[in-house]
From TrEMBL, chain A:
Pfam families: SBP_bac_8. The keyword Signal applies. It is found in: Periplasm. This is sn-glycerol-3-phosphate-binding periplasmic protein UgpB. It comes from Rhizobium sullae (Rhizobium hedysari). The complex is composed of two ATP-binding proteins (UgpC), two transmembrane proteins (UgpA and UgpE) and a solute-binding protein (UgpB). The gene is ugpB.
UniProtKB/TrEMBL annotation, chain B:
Its main location: membrane. It comes from Rhizobium sullae (Rhizobium hedysari). PROSITE patterns: ABC_TM1. GO terms for biological process: transmembrane transport. The keyword Oxidoreductase does not apply. It is a multi-pass membrane protein. InterPro entries: MetI-like, MetI-like_sf, UgpAE/MalFG_permease. Signal peptide: none annotated. The complex is composed of two ATP-binding proteins (UgpC), two transmembrane proteins (UgpA and UgpE) and a solute-binding protein (UgpB). CDD domains: TM_PBP2. This is sn-glycerol-3-phosphate transport system permease protein UgpA.
């Protein structure tokens, strides 16, 4: 009896192992909530489309948590095949040459189609090595845009179809909004000190963030973001905070910024294009308008493109050859315009390839959804210069923390903008040297 | 005189009995501590591909770093405030509940509830209540002309994490104080009352000295709590800001090591933190315990 049972069990196990002969490809990601569900749906479609490979997405928490657990797993020899890394971690990943399998090489080795010219220019620039090879697979890229409350604009006597184009207008509109009592505050910014208020700000004004093409030229770069225009913005933000035009939403992503906009306390909100779905879902009692980020029109008449945020997919070394075949097949699937357009339209992240953008156009998506192409238009305007290609530095997560802290000393009146930016540059440079030392020998 | 010593006739048995505890200590305490110690002398890239031995450079840089000295100072203020606030409040509550005869149980249940809340959830709770845009408390404070904003005002941020951390710990302290109060012999208090001592005099000269073992125990527990377990509260409310005013030592270890991926300096910090705790424990048990009457 026992023998029979174990035989049966063995038979079941055998048949099970043949039907699950598909090669496992693990993908660690940081997409929670609705985005996570959408991601799983996309993976499911890939798994259903063939039987050789099975991609398993694993939610690992926030971006820093995902990166940290992937690195810890790598050190323990248990790394996933694919890991989603936010743009701030790009410098760290690129420096880890022995740990990553560059995507251009992977696709060439596996004979999968790969044409960098199909991707939109800012993405190619951001994730390429100095020779122009894309190192990670672009998945969810975003860029900051300006959201505004049309109802409050009306109440304040402003034209609800006209968003502030420049900082002068931003101050002027805020003044009208606050003094008319239409809202308590003019505007709020996520990543006020870093991604939007400094990195994108510098790119739009064509100002260097650091030497060596903002770090693209190598790890020896130094920060230069303490120029007069950046000082001017921080001074202005302090001034506007004191007059009530600007409200600070906290360090990093500014966790209080979005609530200030949703509760109609602030009329204007600068945030990621990837928050579009969230903003629309939360703006229950008012109409939302979309526009580009403001600029100082006496500094530049011709604002440059903004730069990207979001994340890309990195392939990690140390897997079996057949796993890499699966990764390459999966990336080919993800490159399809239909898959890209679906993800982009659902989330508000940018269409990564020109084909997916064109597909959206031909579907009439952008006409039906006003403002949904603000981000892509802003990030592709003009030709990227060395200052607007993006920023790439090691230890960048920590350096952003330093910038946040220095910004807070300006807002609390402890330091002037000039002192704070000088201090941030000095401390940031020390961290860059540390990173250079740790990665050079 | 009776000794606590038990004589085993079998020579191996005591070691076998000790083995599980020793194994746990070795695997979960000594080994990680050793790893941290080793790592604190290294400079490494996050993936561990290149490792350089840098002697004491991680330590010397630590004490030249203004941010680290600031974190030391912040931690001192924080730990003392949390311990003082949570212990004094819970002693007050315990004394009050101890005087209530019939509904004491009911109050005890209510007071023990916060202990069941996970620190991260507690942090979020206070984050909501104190949030400058959507919180109820800042709304009330503004009515009195106080502009509460822990995102900008360093004092506000410190008050927030102290209150949230102390609130979490009150239940624990309260239970021990109630138990301590109930073990004070009624006859001693009655004798003092007959001698003409009022309630305050009775408390400070009779009851409080008899509570000293409990108080000592709780002081040790609370300081350890403030140093280590408050990490989720800081993380979910202020994240160490504004401008580092609530960046405690344990939060800085996490931020530098796990978020910043700067492993060497972070390991050096945790070794220093470990030494601080060892020193504190020695001080507490060597000098303060002498003043405790069991």
């Amino acid at each position: 009896m026992f023998k029979k049972l174990s035989l049966a069990a063995a038979a079941v196990a055998l048949s099970a192992s043949t039907s699950f002969a598909a090669t496992e490809v693990t993908w660690w990601h940081a997409m929670g909530g609705e985005l996570g569900k959408k991601l799983e749906q996309i993976v499911q479609k890939f798994n259903d489309s063939q039987s050789d490979y099975h991609v398993t997405p694993v939610f690992k928490g926030t971006y820093p948590e995902t990166l940290t657990s992937a690195i810890a797993a790598f050190r323990a020899g248990q790394q996933p095949a694919i890991v989603q890394v936010f743009e701030v971690g790009t410098g760290t990943m690129m420096a880890a040459k022995g740990a990553i399998y560059p995507v251009y090489k992977l696709m060439a080795d596996e004979g999968e189609p790969w044409d960098p010219s199909k991707f939109i220019a800012p993405v190619v620039g951001y994730y390429s090595d100095p020779e122009g090879n894309i190192l990670s697979f672009p998945f969810n890229s975003s860029t900051p845009i300006l959201y505004y409350n049309k109802d409050v604009f009306k109440k304040a006597g402003l034209d609800p179809d006209v968003a502030p184009k420049t900082y002068a207008e931003l101050a002027d509109f805020s003044k009208k909004i606050v003094s008319s009592g239409a809202a308590k505050c003019g505007f709020t910014i996520t990543y006020a000190a870093t991604w939007i208020g400094l990195e994108n700000f510098s790119a739009i004004h064509d100002l260097p963030y650091g030497t060596l093409q903002n770090g693209f030229g190598g790890p020896a770069a130094e920060f230069t973001f303490n120029g007069p225009t950046q000082v001017r913005l921080w001074d202005d933000l302090k001034k506007w905070q004191d007059t009530g035009y600007f409200q600070y939403g906290g360090p990093g992503g500014g966790p209080d910024s979005a609530p200030k906009f949703y509760s109609q306390e602030c009329a204007i909100y600068m945030g990621s294009s990837g928050s579009r779905a969230g903003v629309i879902a939360n703006a229950k009692n008012f109409q939302v308008g979309f526009s580009t980020l403001p600029y100082y029109d006496d500094v530049t008449k011709d604002p440059k493109n903004s730069i990207i945020g979001g994340a890309t997919l990195w392939t990690l070394n140390g897997q079996k050859p057949e796993v890499y075949k699966g990764v390459a097949k999966f990336f080919t699937y993800l490159s399809q315009p239909e898959v890209q357009a679906d993800w982009h339209q659902f989330s508000g992240y940018l269409p990564i390839t020109n084909a997916s953008y064109d597909l959206g156009k031909s579907q009439g998506y952008y006409e039906k959804n006003a403002g949904s192409d603000v981000g892509i238009k802003q990030i592709t305007r003009g030709t990227p210069s060395d200052n607007s290609k993006g920023v790439r530095f090691g230890n960048f997560t920590q350096i952003r923390d330093v910038v946040d802290q220095q910004f807070e000393t300006v807002l609390s009146g402890k330091q002037t903008a000039k002192q704070a930016l000088d201090a941030a540059v000095k401390e940031g440079n020390a961290m860059l040297r540390e990173f250079e030392a740790a990665n050079s020998n | 005189m009776q000794t606590k010593r038990t004589i085993f006739s079998n020579r191996v048995l005591p070691y076998v009995l000790l083995a599980p505890q020793l194994a746990i200590t070795l695997i979960f305490f000594i080994w990680p501590a050793f790893q941290a110690f080793r790592q604190s002398f290294l400079r490494e890239d996050p993936f561990g591909m290149k490792t350089t031995f840098v002697w004491f450079s991680n330590y010397t840089r630590l004490f030249e770093n203004a941010d680290y000295l600031n974190a030391l100072w912040v931690t001192l203020i924080f730990a003392v405030s949390v311990t003082a606030l949570s212990m004094s409040l819970s002693l007050l509550f315990a004394v009050c509940v101890n005087r209530v005869l019939r509904s004491g149980r009911f109050y005890t249940t209510l007071l023990v509830w916060p202990y069941a809340v996970a620190p991260a959830a507690a942090g979020l709770l206070w984050w909501f209540m104190f949030n400058p845009s959507i919180g109820i408390l800042p709304y009330g404070l503004r009515y009195f002309g106080y502009d509460w904003n822990y995102r900008l005002h360093e004092g506000d941020a410190m008050v927030l994490i102290v209150v949230a951390s102390a609130w979490k710990q009150i239940s624990y302290n309260f239970l021990f104080f109630v138990a301590g109060l109930q073990s004070v012999p009624q006859s001693v208090i009655e004798a003092a009352a007959i001698d003409g001592a009022g309630p305050f005099k009775r408390f400070w000269t009779v009851i409080f000295p008899l509570l000293s073992p409990t108080t000592f125990f709780l002081a040790v527990i609370n300081i350890t709590y403030a140093l280590f377990d408050t990490f989720p509260i800081v993380d979910s409310t202020t994240s160490g800001g504004p401008s580092q005013s609530t960046n405690t030592l344990v939060y800085k270890v996490y931020a530098d090591g796990f978020v910043g991926l700067n492993l060497g300096p972070s390991a050096a910090q945790s070794v220093v933190l470990m030494l601080i705790v060892v020193a504190l424990t020695v001080v507490q048990f060597r000098w303060i315990e002498n003043k405790v009457q069991y």
